[in-house]
């Protein structure tokens, strides 16, 4: 008997993203994505890695679905690569590219696994980037057409849809910091890109509703727990709230309230695009749920010279190989905050831990005890949030297999299944066996 039982119908799954696992990025007539182009630029990715092969999931998806079935997954979150369907971003659907997702969805359903599809997990068609990418308003229209094409083909079977994965990450890292594709570095561009992404999100949700598809649609945010360094210092408390506004609320406030958080206007001034009446109505097209991707917390000090007049400081604690502090209580905190602020059903659409050098031991086992502990402690916090009244519907662990961790390449392993990138051998780790039991018992 589990000590902590989850509600009946709670959805247990794992999450992944196209470019991180599929490989064969140009197969069957697909166009290049910005990540394909970026990863092939010298010096962008650790060890010169790229997603040309990754986990070879494009060719081995049946084996992977069989593995998911063995693990008892109830749901599988994957993303669709826009350039496989529309190699140049728009025009006629590339039937061979679409067929891959068609087969994947059928294989999942045959295995009794609910597909959860993300329309955009960072792989914009390179052809659209060459016309301005997300900084160009037309890209939002192209996204709506792409979304419509996907809905027309798959919404008869897929019931859980996510428009964008972590818009704050890909707009900021890709357009302001330059560490992610497309590698541009200008604040104003990132803010414009973000505005167009919100439009694209609104258009896609409208198209979904217009065709009266069954199922639900939402958006996934990258969130952290922003806690003041000194909870008794009002300046630190205010600085933590500003950091939270930027990282957690930038995209959800416009969707739920029709406005950007005030802290963004204070920080960026006139560089932040205005939300006019048409934008407001579009952004506020109702969504069914929010997805929360949680990994760590940030401890915040007030600092008048810092970004958002704040500065992050380092806690004494345990860190993963991403140098992210293990802080389970932060998951409970962000779930509570999202529940209280937005009042929408929630899914944890990602949560997990990246470590290095996890090898297969003498008995053929990968003893990833640190990951197992990480997952268990975070699930305890999900349980606590539900007990506190949060409408949490499911947990999609990141990730099924070790995969291409963006600019870190293959060195950081997040999988509960080990992937040997030379042989493509999959080995379930201890955490996978433990997770199977959690799912079986619907509890910890
Ligand atoms: O691998 C990423 C994923 O693509 C987006 N969320 C965070 C994960 C771990 O860094």
CATH architecture: Alpha-Beta Barrel
Q: Beta fraction of the residues?
A: 15-25%
Cα radius of gyration in angstroms: 21 Å
- The CATH superfamily bears the name Glycosidases
Shape: globular
CATH domain fold name: TIM Barrel
State the distance separating the first and last CA atoms: 9 Å
Which oligomerization state do the chains in this entry correspond to?
Answer: single chain
Helix content: 40-55%
Number of strands: 11
| Mean pLDDT across every amino acid position | 98
The tally of domains stands at: 1
Order of helices and strands: EHHHEHHEHHEHHEHHHHEEHEHEEEH
Given helix and strand content, the structural type is: alpha/beta
Q: What's the tally of helices? A: 16
- Please report the first level of CATH classification, the CATH class: Alpha Beta
Enumerate the strands of the largest sheet in spatial order, edge to edge or round the barrel.
1-2-3-4-5-6-8-9
- Low-confidence runs: none
